[in-house]
Amino acid sequence: MTTLGTPPHAPAVGNDLFVHNMRQLWRHDPALALRIDAVADEDRFPIEPTKSGAWTVRAATPDGKPLYLHSKYDPATEADRFAATVEIEGNFGFVVSGLGLGYHVTALCERLQGDAIVIVCEPSVEMIATALTCVDFTKLIESRRILFLTDADKTRLHELLQPYGTLIMLGTQFLRHEPSLRLTEPEHGAISGAIAEFVTYTRMTLMTLVSNSKITCQNIAMNLVHYVQTPPIDILRDRFAGNPCIVISAGPSLSRNIDQLAALKGKAVLCAVQTALKPLMARGIVPDF
Questions:
Q1: Beta-carbon neighbour count of residue 10 at 10 Å?
Q2: Any idea what the Cα angle at residue 286 is, between residues 284 and 289, rounded to 5°?
Q3: Which of the given ranges, 2-6, 51-55, 234-238, has the highest pLDDT on average?
Q4: For 127, phi and psi rounded to 5 degrees?
């Protein structure tokens, strides 16, 4: 990889740390690891040692102005200040727009409680590759406390976040690493917007589940007497063996053919599925099942 002629007190940077980070990433997110592995060393962002000995990264804004993503004096203290402003209590998902070299992300992770996770939105795979050469993410990746999203692709987003849907739904906070956003703000906005939609989706799913569960319990209670008085289904074993059967389910064909089903009563076993029952009963057609 590129050597920068850094002084002896500068922190270790290079392939050893990159390999350790990538080993964990290959285990937990091979799709992203494959993309990072394809980044050439010369395509990584230039890094420079700071007064404290940690690294900072140098980039250029879309209009060509130079930009340092971290303090040129003490990135760790700067990251601690960032993490200290975050409201941890009551939140279990933290969406951070912008990775940089990841100091603010690791500082935030140190404050997490319980099973809380950090979702890093970083559209630049080159930036992620650069960060993996400078900061040790191995424990965070291994513990699945940190996830990386590089675009707003909903298929990958749902695949990656679905296991954490409950945590994200319970409380999610969106955070901005302002220097990173100065590089690619539109891309960051698209990713965080897609995550916000996912949060809304998980909450609506739960509300629907709770609502349907309430209706199901009510229906069971209303039909409880019939359940108790009805013999078990075992007595029906082979009862209709050899007879034709019509499975009736909701759909356009039911509307067209529903009146013909009355003539088939007693000639075939009528089995109504879910919402098809009420339209049949409204026409006086009582299915066998």
A1: 16
A2: 160
A3: 51-55
A4: -65, -40
Buried (b) or exposed (e) across 145-161, using 16+ Cβ within 10 A?
ebbbbbebeeebbeebb
Stated pTM of the model: 0.70
34-48, 104-118, 148-162, 234-248: segment of lowest average pLDDT: 234-248
Residue whose C-alpha is closest to residue 124's, from 148, 144, 104, 108: 148
- How far is 6 from 50, CA to CA, in rounded Å? 10
DSSP the chain: -------TTSPP-SHHHHHHHHHHHHHH-HHHHHHHHTS-GGGSPPEEE-TTS-EEEEEE-TTS-EEESS-SS-HHHHHHHHHHTS--TT--EEEEE--TTSHHHHHHHTT--TT-EEEEE---HHHHHHHHTTS--HHHHHHT-EEEE-S--HHHHHHHHGGGHHHHHH-EEEEE-HHHHHHHHHHHHHHHHHHHHHHHHHHHHHHHHHHHHHHHHHHHHHTHHHHHHSPPGGGGTTTTTT--EEEE-SSHHHHHHGGGHHHHBTTBEEEE-GGGHHHHHHTT-----
pLDDT of 47: 94
pLDDT band at 211, cuts 50/70/90? confident
Pairing of strands 146-149, 55-60: unpaired
**Residue whose token pair is 């089995």:** 271
Produce one character per residue of 113-129: b if its CB has 16 or more CB atoms within 10 Å, e if not: eeebbbbbbbbbbbbbb
